[in-house]
Specification:
Elements lengths: L1 H38 L7 H9 L1 H22 L5 E2 L2 E2 H12 L10 H12 L6 H21 E3 L17 H7 L20 E3 L1 H33 L11 H7 L1 H7 L1 H19 L4 H25 L6 H23 L1
Keywords: Membrane, Transmembrane, Transmembrane helix
Protein name: Dilute domain-containing protein
C-alpha cells in the first residue's frame, strides 16, 4: 500500500510538472504572438491584425515613436561631417535615401523636412569657416540636384491639387531650378541608380524651395568671404613700391614682377586656398566656376575704380606693376583651369 501511494504521489507530481510546463509553453506562445503583432509591418499584416492595430491607440503611438526615433537618428547622423565616398557627399545621399524609403516626399504632413532645414541653418552659423561652408554647399547642392531629378508635382486627374510654393525670382534661384541642364551634369553625382521619380506633395516641394535658398545663401557667404579678404589687397595692387623703378620693370620683366608684387602673390595665395577647399569638398564644378567668375569680376571692377579714384597712381611704373600682377593672375587661371 505504501508503494502504491508513493507511485500515486509521483504520478501526481509528474502530472503537475507536465501541466505547468504546458501552461508556460502556452504563455510563451501567447507572448510571442503579441510581440509579433506589435512589430509586424502594416503592409504584410492580416486584415484582422490591421484592424486591431488601427483601433489600438497604443500601437499607433508606438509607430509614431518609432518614426520619430528614425528621424532623430538621421539628424544625429548627418549633423556630423560624414565626408565623401568616390567624390559623392555621403550626407546628401543618406538624407535622400531615407526620405525615399520613408515615403516622406509623398506625405501630406511630416516634420522631417523642418528638422533638416533647422539642421542646415544651425550648421552654417559660423560664417567665417569656409571649409565647413563648402562642405554644406556640396551636400545641399547635391541633395537639391537629386530632388530636381526625382520630384514631380502631384496633379493626377480627378484630384484636387494642393497649392504650390512660389517660384524663385532671384538669379541664383532660377539657376538652381534648372539643375536638369547639361551644365549641372558635370556634378560628381551618378544619380541614375539612385533617383526614383515620385509624386511630391506640398511639404516636399516647399522643402526643395527652402533648400534652394540655403544653397544660394551658402554660395553667397563663401563668395563674400573671399571678397573681404581680397578687398584690402586690391587697393595696394595699383601702386608700385617706391623701391621699384620703371626702368627695372622694363628690363627685368616678369622675374622682377614676381619678386616685387607681394600683394599680387597674396591674392593668388587666397585663390589657391579657396580652390583647394572647393576641390576637397567636391563642390560641383559649375558652382566653383561661378564663384571664381564673380571673384574675377570683382577684382576687375575694384582695380578700375581704384585707378579712377586715385589719379596719382596712373603712371607708367604703376601700369607696369599692375600688368605684371595681372600676368601672374593669368598664369594661375591657366593652371587652375587644367586642374
Amino acid at each position: 500500500m505504501a508503494i502504491m501511494r508513493l507511485k500515486s504521489q509521483r504520478f501526481g507530481f509528474y502530472t503537475f510538472i507536465f501541466l505547468f510546463s504546458l501552461f508556460n509553453f502556452s504563455c510563451t506562445l501567447n507572448l510571442m504572438a503579441k510581440t509579433a503583432i506589435l512589430f509586424q509591418e502594416p503592409q504584410s499584416a492580416p486584415p484582422a491584425l490591421k484592424d486591431y492595430g488601427n483601433g489600438d491607440p497604443k500601437l499607433k503611438k508606438s509607430s509614431a515613436e518609432k518614426q520619430q526615433e528614425n528621424v532623430d537618428a538621421l539628424i544625429d547622423c548627418v549633423a556630423k561631417n560624414l565626408g565623401y565616398c568616390e567624390g559623392k557627399p555621403v550626407a546628401a545621399f543618406t538624407i535622400y535615401k531615407c526620405l525615399l524609403h520613408w515615403k516622406s516626399f509623398e506625405a501630406e504632413k511630416t516634420s522631417v523636412f523642418d528638422r533638416l532645414i533647422q539642421l542646415i541653418g544651425s550648421a552654417i552659423e559660423n560664417e567665417e569657416d569656409n571649409d565647413n561652408l563648402a562642405y554644406w554647399l556640396s551636400n545641399t547642392s547635391s541633395l537639391l540636384f537629386l530632388l530636381q531629378r526625382s520630384l514631380k508635382a502631384a496633379g493626377a486627374p480627378g484630384t484636387v491639387s494642393r497649392k504650390k510654393p512660389p517660384q524663385p525670382t532671384s538669379l541664383f534661384g532660377r539657376m538652381a531650378q534648372g539643375l536638369r541642364s547639361a551644365s549641372f551634369a558635370n556634378m560628381h553625382v551618378e544619380a541614375t541608380d539612385v533617383v526614383r521619380q515620385v509624386e511630391a506633395k506640398y511639404p516636399a516641394l516647399l522643402f526643395k524651395q527652402q533648400l534652394t535658398a540655403y544653397v544660394e545663401k551658402i554660395y553667397g557667404i563663401i563668395r563674400d568671404n573671399i571678397k573681404k579678404e581680397l578687398s584690402s589687397l586690391i587697393s595696394l595692387c595699383i601702386q608700385a613700391p617706391r623701391t621699384m623703378k620703371a626702368s627695372m620693370l622694363r628690363i627685368s620683366g616678369r622675374s622682377s614682377g614676381q619678386t616685387q608684387s607681394n600683394h599680387w602673390q597674396k591674392i593668388i595665395e587666397n585663390l589657391d586656398i579657396l580652390l583647394k577647399i572647393l576641390q576637397d569638398n567636391h563642390v560641383p564644378p559649375v558652382l566653383a566656376q561661378k564663384i571664381f567668375t564673380q571673384i574675377f569680376s570683382y577684382i576687375n571692377v575694384q582695380l578700375f575704380n581704384s585707378l579712377l579714384l586715385r589719379r596719382e597712381c596712373c603712371s607708367f611704373s604703376n601700369g607696369e606693376y599692375v600688368k605684371a600682377g595681372l600676368a601672374e593672375l593669368e598664369l594661375w587661371c591657366a593652371k587652375a583651369t587644367s586642374e
